[in-house]
């Protein structure tokens, strides 16, 4: 049977996009992908890619040999920082089986030769790594490939209504790619920010964040209200309890609630975190005015 491949690049729904999104076709688009050693290539296909609010969004859908169907989505910052990657295999009975890397740092996913030329609307890069099924880590997909896409489309920016932390210095880097909100008690809130580099920052507040006055809140490792925690993740810890894989550090510093504003018709709180992070008594990191934001719709 003749093997065929259809690969479509479209917009990932990480950020809201206008219905009249800019999508350009170009016959010189070049995409090469290996999935578990099977090679997929097509240099002439209908395609679309998108830049929105500083995010570069790609979606690859393929129908290949032996009816192997997969949908792979990737999202980058303009500097090549990978924020999102997952592959969904669609089986013959329509079941969707998801795969993603445990984390998005360079030890898990290789991104090389990344080029984004905003003026020429070009994005290209090489990639590779292993993806795991979140429910059964014995199910693995090994991927690698090269993408070159000219004439990248761009949409009018629409605010992304999710909490966010971005901090990048020579000493410490934390770029959040997902967040979880918890409500430990009826009057307290916590926000778990997970980074691309196997670390987590948790902001704990002892009351509704929207009732907090605009001021500084000092904390240390003994604080039980309005404090920040830092932890790193390790795959080497032998346990089936994922939370036990997180190693917690001691912290001290202050949270500053800077402002409460309305953007895109929604309430937004912006603040900064200044803190020192200790491994026992050894100072590991010093963070100065790390920005964070929380949207009211995320409550």
Largest sheet: 8 strands, antiparallel, barrel
| Radius of gyration over all CA atoms, rounded | 21 Å
Could you say which overall geometry the principal axes of the C-alpha atoms support? globular
Order of helices and strands: EEEEEEEEEEEEEEEEEEEEE
**Overall number of strands:** 21
Unreliable spans are 1-28
Total count of domains: 2
Total count of helical runs of at least 4 residues: 0
Helix content: under 10%
Overall pLDDT score: 78
Organism: Cellulophaga algicola (strain DSM 14237 / IC166 / ACAM 630)
Protein name: Lipoprotein
Describe the fold and architecture.
By secondary structure, the chain is mainly β. It folds into two domains: 7-154, no CATH class; 164-298, no CATH class. 0% of the residues lie in helices and 56% in strands. The protein has an eight-stranded antiparallel barrel with strand order 13-14-15-16-18-19-20-21. A hairpin with a 2-residue loop joins β20 and β21 (282-295). It is globular and about 55 Å long.
What's the SSE blueprint?
Blueprint: E1 7-8, E2 30-35, E3 38-42, E4 50-52, E5 55-63, E6 69-77, E7 82-90, E8 96-99, E9 109-117, E10 122-132, E11 140-150, E12 153-154, E13 164-168, E14 173-182, E15 189-195, E16 199-205, E17 216-219, E18 227-233, E19 246-263, E20 266-279, E21 282-295
Parallel strand pairs: 4-12
Antiparallel strand pairs: 1-5, 2-3, 2-11, 4-5, 5-6, 6-7, 7-8, 9-10, 10-11, 13-14, 13-21, 14-15, 15-16, 16-18, 17-19, 18-19, 19-20, 20-21
Q: In a nutshell, what does this entry contain?
A:
With 299 residues, the protein is mainly β.
């Amino acid at each position: 049977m003749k093997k065929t491949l259809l690969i479509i690049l479209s917009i990932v729904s990480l950020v809201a996009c206008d219905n009249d999104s800019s999508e350009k076709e170009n016959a010189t688009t070049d995409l090469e992908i290996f999935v578990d050693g099977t090679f997929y290539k097509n240099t002439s296909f209908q395609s679309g890619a998108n830049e929105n609010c500083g995010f570069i969004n790609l979606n690859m859908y393929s129908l290949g040999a032996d009816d192997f169907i997969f949908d792979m989505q990737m999202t980058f910052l303009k500097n090549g920082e990978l924020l999102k990657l997952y592959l969904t295999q669609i089986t013959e009975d329509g079941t969707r089986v998801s795969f993603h890397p445990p984390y998005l740092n360079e030890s898990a996913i290789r991104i090389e030769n990344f080029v984004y030329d905003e003026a020429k609307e070009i994005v290209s890069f090489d990639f590779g790594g292993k993806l795991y099924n979140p429910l059964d880590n014995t199910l693995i997909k090994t991927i690698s490939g090269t993408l070159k896409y000219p004439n990248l489309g761009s949409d009018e920016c629409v605010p992304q209504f999710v909490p966010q932390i971005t901090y990048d210095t020579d000493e410490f880097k934390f770029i959040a790619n997902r967040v979880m909100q918890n409500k430990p008690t009826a009057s307290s809130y916590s926000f778990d920010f997970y980074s691309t580099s196997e670390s987590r920052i948790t902001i704990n507040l002892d009351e509704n964040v929207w009732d907090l006055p605009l001021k500084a809140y000092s904390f240390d490792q003994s604080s039980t209200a309005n404090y920040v925690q830092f932890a790193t993740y390790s795959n080497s810890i032998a346990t089936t309890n994922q939370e036990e894989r997180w190693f917690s550090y001691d912290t001290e510093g202050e949270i500053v609630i800077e402002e409460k504003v309305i953007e895109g018709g929604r309430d937004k709180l912006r603040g900064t975190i200044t803190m020192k992070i200790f491994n026992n008594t050894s100072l590991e990191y010093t963070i100065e005015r790390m920005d964070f934001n929380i949207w009211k719709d995320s409550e």
